[in-house]
Amino acid sequence: MELLLIDDEPIFRKGLAKLIQKNTTYIETIYQADSAKEALNQVKEHPNVTIAFVDINLPDINGLDLIKQLKTFNPQMLIVVISGYDDFAYARQAIQLNVFDYLLKPLAPSDVRLLLQKIEQKILHQTSSQVKNEQLSALSATTIHIINERYAQPDLTLTSVAAQLFVDTSYLSKQLKRDTGKSFNDYLTTFRIEKAKELLTQSDLHWPIQEIGERVGYPNPHYFSRIFKQHTQKTPTEYRQIR
């Protein structure tokens, strides 16, 4: 796999690149860029880049704006935000852009190793999901894609997706159940809970429970906690404490 490291500090880039090379076998090539402009050029030149480490504070444009542009090249790109800002607002914006993780400088080697392990697990999961999706009907695959993109919207329903796809709700429900073994609501709820678990275990963010619920489609904190406990046998607070 190919990784792009974007930071305007040469010494930091060099040190992180060595650390990545030392602790991974799945990353074959590391490209480097010292600005957003150079990063975009690298992505155009190397379209197989699937992972990007992005510094928020770049000399030409804001790192968050760069992330938006990187996502236009490859919506599935795994992006890790690296920042010297211990700023909740930055973290919130990064999560809204569906970044994989958010880490603060200076980075401890142990944190980087843990992050690389998480990336490897994510890649394995994506590969497994891709194989499964090849066995799905086109309708179910499209439905799952919509859930992936819109799970944070509280008004996402079987009815709204069926209307978007110009199909009958009953037909869509039967297709999804046949292909995945889950009803639309079950699939959506499971997906949202998994996303919530990811946010709860990202120790750098310290998001309030209510905020996490809102970001996965549950604006009512009491309902979020109840649904979360039904699926995990723990409240969100309990789950966070044991991780």
Write the layout of secondary structure elements.
Elements: E1 2-6, H1 10-23, E2 29-33, H2 36-45, E3 49-55, H3 63-73, E4 78-83, H4 88-96, E5 101-104, H5 109-133, H6 138-150, H7 158-165, H8 169-180, H9 184-200, H10 209-215, H11 221-232, H12 236-242
Parallel strand pairs: 1-2, 1-3, 3-4, 4-5
Helix pairs in contact: 2-3
Please, could you describe this protein's structure?
- The protein is an alpha/beta fold.
- The chain has two domains: about 1-130, Response regulator (Rossmann fold, 3-Layer(aba) Sandwich); about 135-240, Orthogonal Bundle (Arc Repressor Mutant, subunit A), CATH 1.10.10.60.
- About 60% of the residues lie in helices and about 10% in strands.
- The chain has twelve helices and five strands.
- The chain has helices at about 10-25, 35-45, 65-75, 90-95, 110-135, 140-150, 160-165, 170-180, 185-200, 210-215, 220-230, 235-240; strands spanning about 1-5, 30-35, 50-55, 80-85, 100-105.
- Strands 2-1-3-4-5 form a five-stranded parallel beta sheet, with helices on both faces.
- β3, α3 and β4 form a beta-alpha-beta unit.
- It starts with a strand and ends with a helix.
